Amino acid sequence: MLGAEDPESFFATAPPLRDADADAVRTKLQEFIARNSIISAGGVDRRPIVCVTSGGTTVPLEQRCIRYIDNFSSGHRGAASTEYILKAGYAVIFLHRRGSCQPYCRFLPDDSFLKFLDVNEESKVQVAESHQTTVKESIWHYCKAMEGGSLLKLQFTTIFEYLQLLRMVATSVSTVGQRGMFYLAAAVSDFYVPWDSMAKHKIQSAGGPLEMRLSQVPKMLSVLRDQWAPLAFCVSFKLETNSDILVQKANMALNKYKMNIVVANLLATYKDQVIIVTNGARNTVRTRNSDDDLEEQIIKLLAQKHSKYIC
Ligand code: PAZ
User: Fold this and answer.
1) pLDDT digits over 113-147, tens only?
2) What is the ipTM score, two decimals?
3) Does residue 112 have a cis peptide bond before it, meaning omega lies within 30 degrees of 0?
4) Which residues constitute the domain of residue 70?
5) Does residue 281 fall inside a structural domain?
6) Looking at residue 140, which CATH number applies to its domain?
7) I need a surface site. Which of 128, 140, 208, 220 has the fewest CB within 10 A?
8) b/e burial code for range 136-166 (CB count within 10 A of at least 16 → b)
9) Any domain includes 127
């Protein structure tokens, strides 16, 4: 019998995406991949396709969910990376947590977007003068990506949705072979409550302290590499809090899951520094000043390595 840690059993017991949602995603993916695979009469202008995963997955504790386990990921890395990947000429499937940071919206204040607006002499609401340039540029880039068909956004909240969508994206992207890339920056739960052993209703506090057993989420990186998209260029991320084990864990992921690259980062410094680990090499990438986006350098390096991989 297969356990909750087995990929097949995970998918067999996960609450399925609604049929209409799954069909709509499948259709969008097929259209997106076809659009970005066209070879024009004047030469090759098809784009390589990257699936960027971004933000954290939740682990529901009740089927009619009131409570869930979450993690700290804001989706900033995935959103910023998407901007630079698009700029480098790729098409991006942005698989992100609902409500997390979005490409071209990173500059928007958390509190409050009203700071960006003011009311003019005719009582009309407009973007404040101080933010006109940033907002105009962002709208321009966003519309170019959406209308030009190089950005497709898909949303998840739970670990169940995330892994089902990732499988759908990966099996679709496998059709473009080595032109496909996975950039797995999402913070994916390591532990979960299998759907069939989850409380159906709100867990009651009258019974005293709560004891709960979490199962391990199956290691889907090996399934991605071996079954879903064997030829794709795979970049996974490894976050640790202990610097003594970071590189060792990154090397383990590289070898065990046959990743092309592992981007290793520490919680204390992840915004300013990452280590790019490949077979036989280690490259530390740092921000040079406070206006610098670390993601710009990461993507430059990855694009070089990916184009070598394709040749
Ligand atoms: O989403 P964010 O910008 O707040 O954080 C990015 C990150 C630290 C989640 C990412 O760089 C990362 O390491 N993701 C993988 C985490 C993991 O080890 O599962």
Assistant:
1) 888 899 999 999 999 999 999 999 999 999 999 99
2) 0.99
3) yes
4) 7-107+134-204+211-310
5) yes
6) 3.40.50.10300
7) 208
8) eebeebbeebeeeebbbebbbbbbbbbbbbb
9) no
What lines the ligand 1 site, CB under 6 Å?
A: 73-77, 185, 187-188, 237-239, 265, 270
- Does the pTM surpass 0.90? The reply is yes
Q: Which residue from 239, 271, 285, 298 has its CB within 8 A of the most atoms of ligand 1, so it is best to mutate?
A: 239
Helix (H) or strand (E) holding 285: strand 281-286
Contact 15, 195 (CB under 8 A): yes
Tokens of 212: 């709960």
Domain count, the chain: 1
Residue 250 lies in a domain: yes
Comparing 8-17, 41-50, 129-138, 274-283, which segment has the lowest mean pLDDT? 41-50
What is the C-alpha to C-alpha distance for residues 108 and 115, in angstroms, rounded to an integer? 9
Q: Which atom of ligand 1 is nearest to the CA of 270?
A: 8
Residue 143 belongs to a domain: yes
